[in-house]
Amino acid sequence: MKTAASIVLVSLLGPLFVNAGLVFEEERVVHEANFEESEYTGTFVFTNKGNKPVKILEVNSSCGCTTALPSKQIFQPGESGEISATFDYGEREGKQIKSIRVETDQEEGDARKFLTLEVNIPSAMEYSPSVVMWNRARETEFKPKEVIIESMMEEPIEILDIVASSDFFSYEVKVLEEGKKFAISITPENVPADHKGILRGTFVVKTSFANPLKGTLKVYAIVR
Hints:
Layout: H1 4-18, E1 22-24, E2 28-32, E3 39-48, E4 54-61, E5 66-70, E6 74-75, E7 80-88, E8 94-104, E9 112-121, E10 125-128, E11 131-134, E12 145-151, E13 159-164, E14 169-177, E15 181-188, E16 199-207, E17 216-223
Parallel strand pairs: 2-9, 11-17
Antiparallel strand pairs: 1-3, 3-7, 4-6, 4-8, 5-7, 8-9, 10-12, 12-15, 13-16, 14-15, 16-17
């Protein structure tokens, strides 16, 4: 039977046992990106609060776009270190959440740790719709359909070029607001009357935005 003293002792020592081994200051890092960034490195600082050395056996990320590395492998009791996680944005936009798994040989506490890197990447441009469609069963005439493109940046931009993948579609660029807002009007043309299959076209829109990954977008056209 446990005495009151033993219960108090366990309650006082409990947190020490729970926190033994590597204890991270923050297990989640959140970053607000800007238009100029192409990558971000989040740092997860920890301390070995156990009474034995801890070796980091493996560090893995949930995405090939993120590289995570420890500052070294073995940490003595009381020693601090860090896990650095570098996330390459590529063409990604919006909220991005990457998980990092840390495997250790510690005997006390959790030998496996999960860290989270969250990056909010602003959109350089917004456009809608991304796909324009026509249905031959319901539409006897192929009327133009528009895709609206709007820059989210303060600096003005221009549409430099549009590369179309199909000769069955034509397009026209309209300036709705100088340096800010545009419309791409797409129209099916030269469609063979006896063609029964689906026609597809891809339009790669290139703008003057300095980062070509963020300044290039794709629009799709489909005739069913």
